[in-house]
Write a structure and sequence with these properties.
Elements lengths: L2 H9 L31 E2 L4 E5 L2 E6 L10 E9 L4 E10 L3 E9 L6 E9 L4 E8 L4 E9 L7 E12 L14 E2 L4 E2 L6 E5 L7 E5 L5 E6 L1 E6 L4 E7 L7 E8 L2 E2 L3 E3 L5 H13 L8 H4 L21 E2 L8 E2 L13 E2 H20 L24 H15 L12 E2 L1 E4 L16 E3 L2 E2 H18 L4 H20 L22 H15 L2 H9 L6 H4 L12 H10 L6 H24 L17 H19 L2 H14 L56 H6 L23 H20 L8 E10 L2 E10 L10 E4 L6 E5 L2 E5 L2 E5 L12 E8 L11 E3 L2 E2 L1 E2 L1
Parallel strand pairs: 12-20, 28-37
Antiparallel strand pairs: 1-4, 2-3, 3-10, 4-9, 5-8, 5-10, 6-7, 6-9, 11-13, 13-17, 14-15, 14-18, 16-17, 18-19, 18-20, 21-22, 23-25, 24-27, 25-26, 28-29, 29-34, 30-33, 30-35, 31-34, 32-33, 35-36
The structure holds ligand 9MR.
The site of ligand 9MR has 11 residues, from loops.
Length: 863
Amino acid sequence: MSVVALLFAAALASPGTALADGAEPGPEQIANGDFAAGTASWWWTPNATAAVSDGRLCTEVPAGTSNAWDVIVGQNDVPIVAGESYELAYTASSTQPLTVQTRVQEAAEPYTTVLSSADPVGTEATQVTRTFTASVDLPAASVQLQIGGGEKATTFCLDDVSLRGGAEPPVYVPDTGSPVRVNQVGYLPHGPKGGTVVTDADEPLTWAVKTADGTTAATGRTVPQGEDPSSLQRVHTFDFGDLTTVGDGYTVEVDGEVSEPFAIGDDLYDGLRSDALAYFYHNRSGIEIDADLVGEEYARPAGHLGVAPNKGDTDVPCQAGVCDYRLDVSGGWYDAGDHGKYVVNGGISVAQLMATYERTLTAPDAESAELGDGELRVPERDNGVPDILDEARWEMDFLIKMQVPAGEPLAGMVHHKMHDAAWTGLPTKPHLDPQQRELHPPSTAATLNLAATAAQCARLYAPFDQDFADRCLKAAETAWAAAKQHPDVLADPDDGTGGGAYSDNDVSDEFYWAAAELFTTTGKDTYRQAVLSSDLHGDADAVFPAGGGISWGSTGGLGVLTLATVPNGLTADQLGEVRAVVTTAADRYAQQSRAQAYGLPYAPKDQDYVWGSNSQVLNNMIVLATAHDLTGKTAYQDAVLSGADYLLGRNPLNQSYVTGYGERNSHNQHHRFWAHQYDATLPNPAPGSLAGGPNLTAIASGDPVAAEKLGGCAPAMCYIDDIGSWSTNEITVNWNAPLAFIASYLDDAGDGGQAAPARACEVTYSSHPWNSGSTVTVRVRNTGSEPVSPWSLTWLLPGEQRLSHTWSAEFAQSGRTVSARPLAWNKALAPGAAVDFGFNTSASGTAPDPGAFKLNGRACSAG
Ligand code: 9MR
């Protein structure tokens, strides 16, 4: 007898059909036995397909396999304890009667088995009940229904699977570490410094901040806050904002409990700005990821360039019946843990990357140098183009390729998405993905995503590559026209096999966003009318709902932020109205941040944390950051910083959601090639990767880890740093894009100080009609205490104007960016002195005041 057979014989107890009279059935060991959470926790052999239908798991069993074990439906990780009695029960039917080999055994060799029975199942639903007493411990047994070996194909449907007995399965209790919660990265010296402590104490407690060597740097009393509704924890808050001494290794002590360490410093977000942006290069499709840029561990061959086993992305067909052409849709970024490429999600992501750059052209305290050429991890370094625009272009090029070519039905519309025909398993490296890639039908939402982003592209790339800018504008205007012609082509919410559905049944916000971008870039009246006549225009509640905000399916706010910050042809009153939308929303988010014990500027109704809740926090922080850029009001920046505290550790789980940042950081996010938790030869996600975060849909979504471990979780605690938890712990481009924007803002805030800095210059911009255009005179005064020599004034022209005759300065216009430099005689601008110069422009009537000017890179105030 072989060793295997010997073990088998020793372990196998003969099956019975019922527990002894009066015996208690014991605790349930099977997860999701009623399939309420979809297929979560269940697996089947790859030669079968399975799906939940009418609350049952129905498996298509292929014909002509040889053995029962050739086709299996099962569940792993079921704990079996020696000496305990169990009852296994299930209900099944099969369109071709068959005999199920019912097994409870080890998942791998030597397949030690504790239950083995042959159970006939016919076309009517049959209940099978088997009992056994385990003779060995199997800490992670596999419950298997082996249904292969039949000559004919059959549909085998399963319901109400239960295995009762044994010990109570352990209830998952998250390890939340110290009850004292802080931003585990740190705090800006001039910023607020809030923390939260979980405690049952009714009275205030003493807090003490300790330096790295144990000296007390500050003390105070906590403020009891009662029960926090997001976590159901009883908490106090504390604030050590008066401590401004720069240093590393600080901790906060409350009631004998010590927080994770943190720093106080100006440059805390420098690395995060760069890492959050590197995420995009790492996740590029269609290009080798270069070890020189990312290190050996993260280098990989190009994915989806038509090299076997890849079946994409250079020549991709449509799904059956959708189109009869094929497109080269190589390039772009992989969406997330999966290798899909979705226009509506790529759209918001590339828009926010471009906005990160565009902010440096308009915001008083924004730094462009760190996003510039030669600064980031992109292969296009040293090409004369800011690196962040190189990265964004990788996606822009892909989005344009998704446009339906001229001459085809729905020309100018944009395919909603392209992805694998069936989901691949984890891990799968991009270049090893064997699935067929398919284009899915065009949609109005995707078309408007292209219209908006390509319009933004046109104005930003013009100074660097006019041809590309022209191509973007053409794609944008073609897309707009196509969307107007086909305004209600919606993506199918059920088209979710092999990739996400990303369906959206309201595209009024996409229309508004696209109109805003096209108007800002072109100044054309059609787009102005589309902006002004939209129901969303001027409605803060609609574009920035108090309980939510901007997301891939809710993009109106992107248009508002552009209109409020980038010079355009709105009248002063209209601009005031748009800016009021931003500050109204920001006031609400700031209020939420102040009111909540964990300080986050996100308070969904009924604590309904959404999928990707961390990105919702960040998108609200972008509204706050923009309000701060526009007004200089400290309260807005405080709420941004408080949001960063939440994301980096001051939260109910004591979790920093950004890989590599903070002691307790997420590093097992759901991803197909950063899958270290499943395969130790693969890396963890690269530093700067943001986990989606807690959400209440986790369990119902079918996420197996959530189903097993997060039952009954409080809303802000429905999260687990496990690679299998795709609903709480995935990473994706549309979550890292707002992280990049905010990291950039925070890095600038660290460098620039909290309040708007004293302006060192003042600009007066006067215009009057002249011929068919207008004449503009500009006066710039040096209001600082140092001479500026040679001076250089830059601004963005609202709309599409051309400068013609100019005087008293050297002008350069590149796209909408204009710079004026001195002539030999007015090179130096002494403190208090002013220089005047002017030009004629094609703007008819009175040329609008661009509003934002920079003198040698520093913002000026209006004269
Ligand atoms: O971010 C998306 C979220 O808003 C949806 O509720 C969810 C379910 O449709 O899908 C999320 O997007 C996933 C996409 O479908 C596939 N790639 C990974 C995305 C992040 O989880």
